Amino acid sequence: MIAACIFDTIEDITHAWKLMETARCEEQNGEFFHKYDREFKYNKTHPKLKDVFFDCMKLANYHVRVIIADKTKIRSKNLLSNPRLLKSYMIRQLFTHTFGAVKECILYIDGQDTRAFSIPDADYLMNIVNKVCPGTLSKVDFVDSKTNPMIQLADMTAGAVRAKLETGNQKALAHFNTFAYRTNKPFGTYWVFTDDK
User: Fold this and answer.
1) Minimal CA–CA distance to 140: which of 150, 127, 153?
2) What is the CATH number of the domain that holds 12?
3) Which Pfam family is one of this chain's hits (predicted)?
4) How many CB atoms lie within 10 A of CB 56?
5) How many domains is the chain built from?
């Protein structure tokens, strides 16, 4: 499963970053008393802080693109036997099926995921996406999630979707519901991917 957060403007990114900084601070009687200085990762973040995070992000302006591989309906032995290839294929699908809505996008991928995605380099991914859907990507860059809050937002988003699907946890469902409308097409998507024809 892969999630991407799409922003329309630099101002939207800046606003989202400020909201995430607000979520990092716990408040008591109107005063901030603690600063969460670690990376936001859904599985490692305290449940109360997850609630604060998703509540703060309600005010941000962005779209969410999610693709989930239904391995029971994928017939390609090559994709099923090679998880890295499947991830790479899914990210390509996520950006080549945008109905022309996503244009000149700068795509940031967690640098730790380059091996997980089996992506040789940024140019390779940009070329393969733009070959299928010209003008979709203007740049692809691998960044460190520890220093990039938008990668952390995508991780929190993916984590909420995964927890909702795998556990049915009510908190995860509540977190998902804070951004579910952001998956509306054409800028967003919630796609259960199969290779059934």
Assistant:
1) 127
2) 3.30.420
3) DUF3800
4) 19
5) 1
Write b or e for each residue in 112-139: b if 16 or more Cβ atoms lie within 10 A of its Cβ, otherwise e.
ebeeebebeebeebbebbbeebeebbee
The per-residue pLDDT for range 113-130, each reduced to its tens digit, is 665 666 667 888 899 999
CB 105 within 8 A of CB 73: no
Q: Full-prediction pTM beyond 0.85?
A: yes
Query: What is the amino acid identity at position 133?
Result: C
- Name the pairing type of β-strands 189-193 and 63-69: parallel
Beta-carbon contacts of 192 under 8 Å, excluding residues fewer than 6 positions away, are: 68, 70
Strand segments, DSSP code E, in the chain are 2-6, 25-28, 31-35, 63-69, 105-110, 137-143, 189-193
pLDDT (tens digit, 9 = 90+) per residue, 65-113?
A: 999 988 888 889 998 898 878 888 888 999 999 999 999 999 998 877 6
CA distances to 14, 93, 105, 190 from 41, rounded to whole Å, are 20, 24, 24, 21
